[in-house]
Amino acid sequence: MAGQASDGRGRVTIRTVAADAGVSVAAVSKVMRNAYGVSEALRQKVEASIEKLGYRPSIAARGMRGQTYTFGVLLVDIENPFLPSIYHGIEDRAEAQGYKVMGRCGPGA
Q1: Which of 13, 36, 77, 96 has the most crowded Cβ, counting Cβ within 10 A?
Q2: Alpha-carbon dihedral sign for residues 59, 98, 52, 41
Q3: Is residue 64 domain-resident?
Q4: Are residues 21 and 49 in the same domain?
């Protein structure tokens, strides 16, 4: 099951990925942030472990660091028939990048 430790003891964490890849937690973090100075060999090793374990960063943990990865979209003209399509496109792209979208519609949104 994705996101579940192979030993059944709970959620896969960045520490689980680091242990599986044989690297430090800091190295996994650098790969995930696409930080400067990460070798291609390290990137491949960490990404292979992430894929194998089904690791997904915790949105709650991001929030505790002050990084909620959430943004708002205000739609004023709710009568416009194109806006729902535009909003859904924004939402799909944002969620594919790990962001959450909060939407508000109506006059004076």
Answers
A1: 13
A2: negative
A3: no
A4: yes
85 within domain boundaries? yes
Q: How many whole angstroms separate alpha carbon 61 and alpha carbon 44?
A: 25
Domain residue limits at 53? 14-57
Structural domain count of the chain: 2
∠ CA 76-81-83, rounded to 5°:
50
Number of H helices, E strands in the chain: 5, 2
H helix intervals, 11-98:
14-21, 25-32, 40-53, 59-64, 83-96
pLDDT tens, position by position, 29-74 = 899 888 888 999 999 999 999 999 999 877 666 666 667 788 888 8
pTM, entire model: 0.52
